[in-house]
User: Fold this.
Amino acid sequence: MNGLRRREFLASAAAAGVVSMTGVDPTLARAAASQAKSGAALTAAERLAFVHPELREATANFLPLLETIPPLSDDVLPMMRDLPNPLAKPLDAKPEVSEKQISGLDGDPAIRVFTINASAGAKRPAILYFHGGGYVAGKAEGDLSDVQVLARELDCCIVVPDYRLAPETRFPGPVRDAYAALAWMHGNADAIGIDRSRIAVMGRSAGGGLAAMLTDMVRRRAQFEIVLQVLLYPMLDDRTGSVRAMPAHVEGIMWSSDQNRFGWRSLLGVEPGSASVPQGAVPGRYEDLKGMPPAWIGVGAIDLFFDESVDYARRLADTGIWTELNVVPASWHGFDMALPDLRISRAFRHSYTDALRFAFSGQLARSPK
Assistant:
């Protein structure tokens, strides 16, 4: 079990905090940049040259532990799923969190969902939120304390489904669960106290990719409306790390090309980067984005998902869709969850919280049909 400590070293980094800045000599930074561009492996010191000053000390503490993590595989996955999540914090008494079982879509299995800040008869805005985990891991419970904070700040109701995971459930199973949760919100709007006209979708990492898939399904079915999609360092494109080699300075901090290929292979049932993938499964491959809802997309500049996030935001904006892209300099995948008290993490949260506030107040331009 010593090699299975991804979440443990994240917690250690958070506990260590960032008390002082770790300086990196500019000459070393220039040498590291040249080496990363060439595709050569970087030393730990060279890698730190690319990391934001606020993140460097914590990053230096956990980089050695990255070497202890075994490759993600079908054999390792069950043990990874069983690990406790030390980043999960105790829930507050308010706003109230309740657990329900809802019907799946068209005969699919029942889905466990959590509702936060539900109140019968109210007309609050709402968020449908999806956890991360590379499409193969993670649980809804892991993000509930953070979701409580967001629900309290925006005075909104948030629904968090425990969607089915790959490889046991391949696409479109997870997005069907997402759509079933959205349909349940509409059908039970009065009971949970939400305004059907003010529902946003939101997700982290694979949860951000699932949110993007859901917006496409909603667009094609034309049954519901979404006022904003909030995609936090979203997992959008199976070609990242497969047919598109990634530079050394973004490779392996919290998420690697190997892990990315495993996640996509598990979801798609075909090799990542294949010429043909299931329709609707890969947002980065959508040819036509017309009719998508407004979008807020945030990503760190040394995140494996940087290129695909920026490209997706550019294509949305080029289509005439209201789009905000928040790039956090020199920051790795999930930095805000691992180190939530840093200035850059707080600024990141404030940015997407403001976007949600604007969307719920009707201040964002609606997308052209």
Remarks:
- Confidence is low (pLDDT under 50) at residues 1-39.
- Strands lie at 97-102, 111-116, 124-130, 157-161, 194-204, 229-232, 295-300, 323-328.
